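W.,

You were right to be curious about this one. When I first looked at the sequence I had no strong expectations either way, so I just let the prediction run and decided to look at it fresh. Below is the sequence, 414 residues in total, followed by the output.
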Amino acid sequence: MKIAISGDFVIRSGSVANPMDLVPDASVEAEVLGEFDYRLVNLEGPVLARNTKAKPTAKCGPILRMDDAIWDVLRKMGVDGVTTANNHIGDYGPVGIIDTMNGARKHGIEFFGSGLNFDHAYGLRMIDVGGEKLAILAVNEHDGAILHEREPTPAFLDLGRLAKNITQARFQEIPVLVYYHGGNQHCPLPNPYMRNLFRRLVDLGASAVVATHAHCPQAWEVYRKAPLFYGLGNFCLIGRKDSKHGISFQLKRKLLHILGRGFPPVKELAKKSHEYGLTVVLEFNGGSVTVSKIRFSRFTVDDGLKWIHDDEHLSCVKRIKEINDILIDDKHYGKVWDAWCHILTPQHLSMIQRNLAGGKMIFSKDFRKRISIANRFGCESTRTMILDYLTRKKPPSSDMLDKTVELMGLWNDD
């Protein structure tokens, strides 16, 4: 069985006049990716039915929703299944989750990673292609809206339940794909917690693990013959009002340093990385899995979704190799991660302080501010970054900080 897997997909309601014009049809995908039996993407947000009236839930970060015309866009591309375990599926509360699940069923698209309650979300779900079965377990870190386990919810990471499902599937000699939503946004490398977790999932019996959420293509490796893709990047993303690239990345960096404002905002450094994604075709054959194909795509509002070819494809391969080389060198990887924590963590600590009433250890009465603080400690990847920053023995060198800043802009050079 061959399964083609892409990253985050969202076309925000009202962002474009006709979303169907932004994506190629299934025949184009088949030409690029070759033969495959099943197509899977991450649906990064709820799809609300036409007549549904729902209010956004209290949370930190952007609020996303899609119109039900999105199902036709997904079918045009030949998508068979979507993962719904992510930090945006609950942006319109239980109503949005129910609408999404009902819409998927109506349009013949399977969903993985959400349910009417926590038990339902963690139900063992499988696909069957010509008698070959594959268990798909979709989970997400504790980030986004706070939902009760007895109401419609995504499958927030629960290691006990996840291990039980993996063991149950392997007992039936069914291979397991774990689709994980988490990580540190804009970082081209996985954090140490994720890397260790993915390896332990393989030790438990997972055949392969893929991830999204960083909004940039990340490194990947093979552990005990199991491919681990730490971040597929964005497949198709219009989450906010589009803005044009203005002043160049290098000039902006120099100006900010001259003005004494420290490092440029990470979202500015990594802006073009949001346009790129990688799609991987995994072939499951009994107890083994191989990487059949890796292809890169690029999405912009002006040009829509385009598959990358020729010299540009080779350039993308070179960029991935650069971050893969860092990952396999434990010493270098540790230094880059330490520098990343040094650059990013202070803004999280500053936010926590600002959202405490009067800067004192008294929680604000504003629920959204409390949720914002809770996400910093509840989200596994953000917590890892903060703890690693607070427990380090010495700061990274200036040279390593500069190299890490350059790495953030890896995808900015066309």
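Here's what jumped out at me. Residues 332-412 form one domain. And, maybe more interesting for your project: Confidence is low (pLDDT under 50) at residues 241-261.

Coffee later to discuss?

I.
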